[in-house]
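Sanity check record (used in CI):
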Amino acid sequence: MGWIGDSVESIRSLQIRHLLTQIISLGMIVTSALIIWKGLMCITGSESPVVVVLSGSMEPGFKRGDILFLHMNKDPIRAGEIVVFHVDGREIPIVHRVIKVHERQDTGEVDILTKGDNNFGDDRLLYAHGQLWLQQHHIMGRAVGFLPYVGWVTIIMTEKPIIKYLLIGALGLLVITSKD
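Expected output for Signal peptidase complex catalytic subunit SEC11:
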């Protein structure tokens, strides 16, 4: 009876060790993703180095579901550039083209006006109440490249949260049940 009890306890110990190993592996994957994201933030100088186009306002150049890669540098922003900006009171950033840049002589600050390529008018209706221009601090980055359609994964998971939870659950189950 002692030998069987020791074997059962040994098997349980191995199972617990295996489960802990899988949990640590999952934690390392998540940590690696965060490190890569923070590294991209440092390299690109942008608080969000990758964004997904969520609307058709930039068609035909960028379509809903395209992923944009952003970079931010000290060069002055010019008309014609595609920028991603945030507006006070809005959670989701906006991807639009700069149509007008005005440098104030007294302060040297730059006022920026944007517009979606597929929109009729400029973005002043999208800006915060009473705001007519964007300033440099609103700009999150400049588009330097894109991948078409890859962002649909994000859009689907945002619009259908059940798919996100099923995917996360499946990935977690896969990590926990995989054999080394």
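The helical segments are 2-44, 152-159, 161-177. If this sentence no longer matches the regenerated tokens, the check is flagged for review.
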